[in-house]
Specification:
This protein has helices at 11-22, 24-27, 63-75, 97-104, 106-117, 150-169, 195-204, 224-236, 255-266, 293-299, 307-318, and strands at residues 2-6, 31-36, 53-57, 80-83, 122-126, 172-178, 181-182, 209-212, 218-220, 222-223, 244-247, 252-254, 276-279. The protein has 337 residues and is α/β, with parallel strands linked by helices. The chain has a seven-stranded parallel sheet, with helices on both faces. The chain has a two-stranded parallel sheet with strand order 7-10.
């Protein structure tokens, strides 16, 4: 059995590759192929020494580089695709609309084509809670998606393409909607996504934590280790065929509460004072958290790690990382608003 993982140098991809390679014989895996363009992930997150792993550097929105991945499918029987690659800067997506669709839709449709063409068993796709948009909480899988930004639209379009691919070509899929996953290998140097990582970067550099609006927005967070077994189950279980499943985040908290937790964890037993600064509100859903019952039933999800404990583990990892500068966009497609 061979597996292909995209976004393999990022938070979910790197941890998942590490997880399944550690259980390779138990899971019946022969080889793992990892794809990443290294625009948001880091090569240091991948164990290139593992003889059962092969890395392909490719931008899946580029037709010439797509050919490198097509060659992987031609030479190897790929049984499962795990598509984790995305530029998940939801708040930035209204100002980089074309980049958003190029990086989040084109790679997905390419991989769906590969899956159909080479008869993969199942395509596991990490969509986003952003597809729910404005809906009542907790978001449940039977709700009609109502995204309010280009990122959510891109993810929903990809979901629809997977559904049509099954109807027309019989390719099985499972759509996972994760809840704000965090942990080691998170890109804390990207100031546009993953609020917990943003705050940890600021903590490292003695900068104030920034919160948009009043901070009473509610979210739920999930530590990476708790979701990894579920991602594998999504691929191999008969019960998850063509399902759409929320994953993680059983406890919702406000951003103010989350900021206080990060402040506590990074303040080294109170020896450092962290400042929290509130900025003007931005265009976002006020309350966004999802149900978890279906993930418990179909994926066997268990929340073993509290948000605070997960932050402690992540902070221990962050402190071991090399000094990297935050990467800011130089030119937005839109400056308006």
């Amino acid at each position: 059995m061979n597996v292909l993982i995209t976004g393999v140098a990022g938070l979910v991809g790197a941890n998942f590759a590490e997880y399944i390679l550690s259980k390779r014989q138990e899971l019946g895996i022969n080889r793992v192929f990892g794809v990443d363009d290294l625009s948001g992930g880091y090569i240091e997150n991948i164990d290139l020494r593992d003889e059962n792993f092969e890395f392909v550097k490719a931008d899946l929105s580029d037709r010439e580089e797509q050919a490198l991945v097509d060659l992987v499918f031609k030479k190897n029987k790929i049984d499962y695709i795990f598509h984790f690659a995305a530029y998940a800067a939801e708040g930035l997506s209204p100002f980089i609309r074309q980049y958003n669709y190029m990086s989040n839709v084109i790679p997905t449709t390419f991989l769906i084509t590969m899956g159909i063409k080479y008869n993969v068993r199942r395509f596991v796709f990490t969509s986003s809670m952003a597809t729910y948009g404005r809906n009542t909480t907790p978001f449940t899988e039977d709700m009609v998606p109502n995204p309010i930004d280009p990122y959510g639209i891109a993810k929903y379009a990809s979901e629809m393409d997977l559904s049509v691919a099954y109807e027309q070509h019989g390719m099985e899929y499972c759509i996972i909607l994760p809840h704000n996953i965090f942990g080691k290998y998170q890109n804390i140097w990207d100031p546009y996504r993953n609020v917990l990582g943003i705050w940890m970067y600021k903590a490292l550099h003695g900068l104030p934590f920034t919160v948009y609006g009043d901070g009473e927005q509610t979210r739920a967070f999930s530590y990476i280790d708790d979701v990894l077994p579920c991602l594998w189950t999504a691929a191999v279980s008969p019960d998850t065929k063509n399902e759409r499943i929320n994953l993680g985040g059983k406890v919702s908290i406000s951003l103010n509460e989350a900021a206080e937790l990060v402040k506590e964890v990074t303040s080294e037993n109170g020896s450092i004072q962290r400042e929290i600064v509130h900025l003007e509100p931005r265009h976002e859903v006020k309350h966004a958290w999802s149900s978890y019952e279906k993930s418990e039933r179909l994926l066997g999800y268990v929340e073993n790690t509290s948000t605070k404990r997960g932050l402690e583990l992540m902070w221990d990892w962050v402190k071991t990382q090399p000094q990297r500068e935050a990467v800011y966009w130089k030119d937005y497609e839109l400056e308006k608003n």
